[in-house]
Amino acid sequence: MSHVAPKVGFISLGCPKAASDSEQILTRLRAEGYEISGTYDGADLVVVNTCGFIDAAVQESLDAIGEALTENGKVIVTGCLGAKGDVIRDNHPSVLAVTGPHATDEVMGHVHNHLPKPHDPFVDLVPDIGVRLTPKHYAYLKISEGCNHRCTFCIIPSMRGDLDSRPIQNVLAEAENLAKAGVKELLIISQDTSAYGVDVKYKLGFHNGRPVKTRMTELCEELGKHGIWVRLHYVYPYPHVDEVIPLMRDGKILPYLDIPFQHASQKILKLMKRPANSDNVLGRIKKWREICPQLVIRSTFIVGFPGETEDDFEELLNFIREAQLDRVGCFTYSPVEGAAANELPDPVPDEVKEERKERFMAVQAEISAARLAARIGQRLQVLVDEIDEEGTAVCRSYADAPEIDGLVFVEDAAGLVVGDFVEVEIVDASEHDLWGERV
């Protein structure tokens, strides 16, 4: 009788950092000979990797756990919601086990308890780069965990702890493996990319026999040597961010910065306890664009934070008109359980929050549309993400991060495959996306 490998169903919710945790757990499961399934069907056990950041995500995670229990019955929970202690047990007392985020060893221990590992000395299924949830042509590279800031709207430090930078040699070795495996784009993620190495005092590591500082600038210089796209996420505008702009100008890393500014009013930024809260953000943006004219900036903002007056909000609108950011997300303040900001006086009524968000997005929509329209006639290198049924290549340019920014559509996809780079001339633009013709 042939041996049937035990099968683990895997559900991953939440942000790219959670996906990165999932990939580590999946790699271990595969290495030990477990089969992986994206469904509950026929799985001996289900692992749910949860998100606990905002209330809607908590509810989504609880619903997913409930569904897994109903459909399968044997469920192990990991991820950010697991750090919130009793929430899961109170709602779903029958789960087998609960762990917090980045707890690969614990998760494996629970899997072994409930589903003993298969013994097969000949099974070595895992490629060097591990098992990845993202498409083969791009990969998330997590450089640190946790955060040293205590922004009042955020509970990440209580879930994921203080900043814990990965050793630079590990990060660079992983990047090298990914590049060798044919990955075309690395997305650098953390809770605070600019702070990389602060916790270890920027200590020297060794990569291929060379000393390299555990620091964002040095990291970018090294990553830029693979000749593939390198995209920075979650960058706070500390002074040393200025050092990576020339690397962008010289084509070492993508001229793309994801900077969560959150607000423009100094009063609100202080209430938020935002780090690197400099008055002169507009001046710095102008300087960055002088050094690297093709720089694209994406950001997120919160409206309706406790204490935000109409004047504060007007200041924010003036800021985005001046800053001319390329891509912007806007959230209304959501009182997350456990966030310090919930105790602040003068909460903003829900209808005012919503109305401000609409006004904010209307101003930004015009800016984004104009910046995209200005690309008509430009030539851009794009990366093919998929070929749809109509034979259109769905692509991204350097200005577009996967799943959060816009797309570039190329109607003639003949001969193109996913993961190809192709040069196009931009012929049309909408509020979010571009259309290109192959050159």
Give a short synopsis of this structure.
The protein is an alpha/beta fold and 439 residues long.
Q: How does this model look, in words?
A:
Strands 2-1-3-4-5 form a five-stranded parallel β-sheet, with helices on both faces. The mean pLDDT is 91. It has helices spanning 16-31, 55-71, 86-91, 104-114, 156-160, 168-180, 216-223, 245-249, 266-272, 281-291, 310-323, 350-373; strands at residues 7-12, 35-37, 45-50, 75-79, 97-98, 138-142, 144-145, 164-165, 185-189, 204-207, 210-213, 229-232, 256-258, 296-303, 327-332, 379-387, 393-396, 408-410, 421-429, 434-438. It is an alpha/beta fold and 439 residues long. Strand 16 and strand 17 form a beta hairpin.
- Give the oligomer, counting copies of the same chain as homo and different chains as hetero: single chain
Quote the beta fraction: 15-25%
Classify the secondary structure makeup into a structural class: alpha/beta
Query: Rg to the nearest angstrom?
Result: 23 Å
- Major beta-sheet overview: 5 strands, parallel
Morphology:
globular
Annotation field: number of helices = 12
Number-wise, the strands total: 20
- Main-sheet strand order equals 2-1-3-4-5
Organism: Vogesella indigofera
Function: Catalyzes the methylthiolation of an aspartic acid residue of ribosomal protein uS12.
Keywords: 4Fe-4S, Cytoplasm, Iron, Iron-sulfur, Metal-binding, Ribonucleoprotein, Ribosomal protein, S-adenosyl-L-methionine, Transferase
Binding site for [4Fe-4S] cluster 2: 147, 151, 154
